[in-house]
Each structure stands twice: as C-alpha cells, then as structure tokens.
Automatic annotation (TrEMBL):
Binding site for NADP(+): 66, 181
Protein name: Glucose-6-phosphate 1-dehydrogenase
Domain Glucose-6-phosphate dehydrogenase NAD-binding, chain residue ranges per copy: 29-220
Active-site residues (renumbered): 273 (proton acceptor)
GO molecular function, one term: NADP binding
Domain Glucose-6-phosphate dehydrogenase C-terminal: 222-520
Cellular component annotations (GO), alphabetically ordered: cytosol
Top EC class of this enzyme: oxidoreductase
Membership in a protein family: Belongs to the glucose-6-phosphate dehydrogenase family.
Amino acid sequence: MTQQAPVEQPLKQHSIWQDGRKPDPCAVVIFGATGDLAQRKLLPTLAHLTHDHPLPQGFCIVAFARRPLSDEQWREMALNAVNQYMPEDDKLDHEAQQAFAQRLFYCQSTFEDKDGYARLAQLLEKLDREQGTGGNRIFYLATPPETDPGIIAHLGEAGLSREHNSNHNGHKSWARIIIEKPFGHDLSSAQKLNRDLGRVFKEQQIYRIDHYMGKETVQNILAFRFANGIFEPLWNRNYIDHVQIVVAESLGIGTRAEFYEGEGAIRDIVQNHIMQVLCLTAMETPVAFDAEAVRDEKVKLLRAIPPLTPEEVAQQTVRGQYTAGVEDGQTVKGYKQEEGVSPQSTTETFVALKLFIENWRWEDVPFYIRTGKRLPTRSTEVTIQFKRVPHLLYKPDETRGLVPNRLTLRIQPDEGISLKIGAKVPGAERNLRSVDMGFSYSSAFGIQSPDAYERLIADCMLGDSTLFIRRDEIEASWRIIDSITNAWKGMSDDTVYPYQAGTWGPKQAETLIENDGRDWDNPS
C-alpha cells in the first residue's frame, strides 16, 4: 500500500483592516505615477486592496506625472503594470481589471508647474462630487528625493494640505502625505526636509514610510517580546551576551549606480531598515500599543546610543566593497565595474558595526550589525545570543558541537523563529550538540502574510501611524550615522576593504567580532 503525499493547502487570506474598521472614502494621488516604484509596487498593491479587501465605493487613484496621457491611456498603462507585477496566483480577471481601471484618473503636469496643482485641486473637487471621495486625500510622493521640497511647497500653496471642517457627510475631511526614504542624506538635510514638511503639514498628517516596518515578521518582534512572559525576564544584560542584526543581499547594485554612489550601504540600509529593527528589538515596553507610545520608546532607544568618536569609529566599524567573484555558480563583476560607477569609487557596499546602548537594560551588551551587497545569500535576521552556562558539567571533547543558546528571528526570506538549545546525542556516550527548535509563520498559521506596502498603505488610510517614522526618530538616527560618516571622511581610502562577491565580507569584519571572543552567526 503506497502512502499519498498530503496535498498542500492554499494559504488563507489575511485580514488587512484592523478590528473590522473600514477606511473612509478617499483619493490617493500618486506623484511620479509612471515611475518604477508606482508601476512595480503601488499600483499592484492598490489593485489587490480594491479586489481582495474591498474599499469604499468612493475610492479613486489619481496619477500626477509629466507624460501627456489621457485617462484611458493611463488606465491602459496601469493595467499593464498590474498584469506584469502582480503575483501569478493573485492576478485579476477581466471584470476585476475593468472595475479597478474605472477608479483611475490622470492629471498631467510637471512637478514645478504651479498651474498643474490648481488643475489637480479642480480634479479632486470633481471626484468629491462625482465619485464620493469626501474631500479626503492621500498624497504619495513616489518621486526622487530632490523633487520632494518643491512638491510639498506647491501642495501648500494650492491649499491641498488643509483639512476641511466638514464634507458632504458632515465629517471632517483629512489630508495625509506619504514620504518615501531616504529621509535626507544626513542630519542637516533631514532637518531641512522636516522643516519643509512642517510648514505645510502637521506632524500627524505626515507618514514617513519604510517598507521594512510593513513586514509581518518585523511587527512580530514586538509580539514575541511583549506577549511571551518566558522571554521578557531574560531580555537584558544579565542573560544576553550580545545581539547580531544582519541584512544580507545576494544581488549587486543593478541599475541603481547613481543612487548608490551617493548613499552607500550605511545610508541605504543601516540608517533606516536596520535602525528600525534595532529599535523594536531593544526598546522598552510601551505604555500602550498606539502610535505615539511605540514611537516614544523607539526615540528613547536611539537617544541611548551615543554618537561615536573618531577613535571609536576606527575601532568599531568596517567598510567593504565587493570585487568580482562567483554568485550562485555565475561569475559576477565587481562594484567598480558596474555601469555608472567610477573606477576610483570608495563607496562602501558592506558595513559592519559594533554599537552600545547606554541604559540599564543593555549596558555593556554589544550590538553587532552587518549589511552588504553580493553576500552569499539574501537574508534578514536578528540573533540574540545568551550567555554561556556558568559551569559546564561536561568535558570539552563531549561538547564540540555545542554553542551558547541562540534565538534567531528570521525576517526574510524564510520568515520564522528558531531557538538553538543543547541536547544529548542518542547513545551511551555523553556527547552534546546544538539543535534548533523553531517554526515558520506560513506553516504555523496557514495565513498569507500581507505585502509590506499593502499593510502600510492600509494603515495610512485608517490614520494609524504606528508603523511610520516620526520626525524626532529620523533625526536621532541621523545623529548616530553622521558621527560615523563624518569620521570616515578623515580616514584613508585604504580602509574601504575589498571582499570577493559571494563571501561574507572583508576579513576585517571577522576580526571586529573575533577580537571580542565571539563569531558571526551567518544565515544558512
């Protein structure tokens, strides 16, 4: 008798609306709607929302872009993007595509044309009357950072940022703006961007989006910490030896040479993604799970990380740049050979850092951070390594396969949690080995995780800014990063160490942690 393999059950649809709440009618205005971000991410996400998580009838999407397109031409372009970039198992049928297309409208203008914003205001008022959008607007800036200040100023001049006293339902209408990273290039430019925003929008209207915060597994860091009583008593310097955070990317820079040459790995990944994960991992318990309480604790955590002195930067940071190597069996070129990169470039594609948090919970516990391009695998993980047992009863030759307890939070790609514990190998001999206890989010719950952009856009519609970044949070993060990048300016170019593509970075990164008697926990 042959045993049939179990049929894999499709994942259940998740619920995107919190506690059954539904969003108000609104118009989402996408600046730069013909660009890459809008085509690859925003339009497929909005199409999925309207189909799988029904939105109010009064919901419209307005494109604001340079190309001279009619509504029909824009709808055709948008549907092409939706069909190309939506996952195969999420495609819309013909009827659903046409229903989505009828929600799409176009306003042609350059970002600098004052009259274009007047036409946008007229179109939005028309949609309020004809489509029932109720005077509510979300302005999504899917645009290059250098264009943001001008767009923000023009929105203010056109009166589009104002929240009106009432709409046709007798409720106060609202206006919100979503800003994509990078939020400035350094502390000074971030403060200027915040001032530009503050002149036109109130802080509660501003939604600074980092798609990492929309990942279900990032949010589950808080649930894991604060919903499990067995870990909170151990989550401190008394029991934890050190913490590692890695954001590894196996790809190179692709077509992003112009952006990457100006930003490098520390601004591209560390200042935003890694700092957000660090905050959730190390912050204190908020007084409530609401936007201000959570963000208050994140800011406190960042302020407890002192800026590094030039001497500390030399000792606690490592920069690297990938050279030609082999990735997945294919020969790949080095960073300086990438199209658009200067042959004399000293831009870092790899960063390793050691940071300390100066508070009662984390005093003297090092946080080791790594990120890089052209590493052996794509992975984002947080590893909490606990201290060794105070006295090991077994002989050294009986514990060769044993490492200290490690708790790993896998954010991507195989989302889950694993705990490494010591166990005896079966047999008469007293041999110990480390084994993993763990689970996968998809198999444990059988529920499809929402896309990061889907969750964040839905939260903005509901007016929930918990997963978005506040003004003082941005500036506190930049103070730390600036202390590092300013010190790097005074260091020799020779301190940007080469590493071969397909490896875990320069050997100096190994030395950084080995000098402390520790080793990196590389994702498998």
